[in-house]
C-alpha cells in the first residue's frame, strides 16, 4: 500500500499511536458538529480497525493524515464505500475529518486532492461522490475547491437519521475522471 504525499501532508496507514488523538478528535463537539453524535473510544478504535483493514485489503480507504514537517496526526482523508442505500449508490465517497487545530490551513483540500488523484489514477474510478449535511458549509467549500459539482437533484434525506433530525437533509457532490 503506497503512502500518498503532498507538499505538506502524508496520507498513510493507521498506527496504534493514532488511536488516542483520533478518539479525542471524535469526542470534540466542534469537530463533530455536523455528525449525529460524538464517537465513543470503542467506536473510534473500530473505525481505525475497519479502515486499516480496507487499506491493507484493497490498497485504499480512509488514510490517517499527518503533517510531514512535524509528524503530527491530524485526522483522516480518503475514500470509502457508503454503507447505506440511496438512489445515487453504489459509488465511492471521498471524505475527511480533521482535528480542530488543523482547520484553516488548507489541509483538507490538499489531502482530498491527493485522494482524488489516487482514486482516478491507480484505483481507476470513473466518478467519486461526496455528501454532507446541508449545515456543513466548510466541507461543502472543500468539495467545491477540489472541483466537485453540487448535484441538487441528488440531495437526499440521510436514511440513518430519523425524520426531522437537524442533520437529516444532505447535499450530494460529484466529480468525474
TrEMBL record:
InterPro entries noted in UniProt: Acyl_CoA_acyltransferase, GNAT_dom, N-acetyltransferase
Keywords, in A-Z order: Transferase
Species per Swiss-Prot/TrEMBL record: Kribbella albertanoniae
Domain N-acetyltransferase residue range list: 9-177
Protein name from the UniProt record: N-acetyltransferase
PROSITE patterns to which the protein is assigned, alphabetical: GNAT
GO MF assignments: acyltransferase activity, transferring groups other than amino-acyl groups
Matches recorded under Pfam families: Acetyltransf_3
Amino acid at each position: 500500500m503506497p503512502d500518498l504525499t503532498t507538499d505538506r501532508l502524508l496520507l498513510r496507514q493507521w498506527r496504534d499511536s493514532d488511536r488516542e488523538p483520533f478518539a479525542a478528535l471524535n469526542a470534540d463537539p466542534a469537530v463533530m458538529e455536523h455528525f449525529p453524535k460524538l464517537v465513543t473510544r470503542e467506536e473510534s478504535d473500530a473505525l481505525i480497525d475497519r479502515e486499516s483493514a480496507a487499506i491493507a485489503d484493497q490498497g485504499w480507504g480512509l488514510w490517517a493524515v499527518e503533517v510531514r514537517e512535524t509528524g503530527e496526526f491530524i485526522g483522516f482523508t480518503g475514500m470509502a464505500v457508503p454503507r447505506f442505500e440511496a438512489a445515487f449508490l453504489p459509488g465511492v465517497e471521498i471524505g475527511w475529518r480533521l482535528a480542530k487545530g488543523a482547520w484553516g490551513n488548507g489541509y483538507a483540500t490538499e489531502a482530498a486532492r491527493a485522494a482524488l488523484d489516487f482514486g482516478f489514477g491507480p484505483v481507476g474510478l470513473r466518478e467519486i461522490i461526496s455528501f454532507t449535511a446541508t449545515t456543513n458549509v466548510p466541507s461543502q467549500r472543500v468539495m467545491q475547491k477540489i472541483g466537485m459539482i453540487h448535484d441538487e437533484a441528488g440531495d437526499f434525506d440521510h436514511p440513518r437519521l430519523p425524520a426531522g433530525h437537524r442533520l437529516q437533509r444532505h447535499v450530494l457532490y460529484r466529480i468525474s475522471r
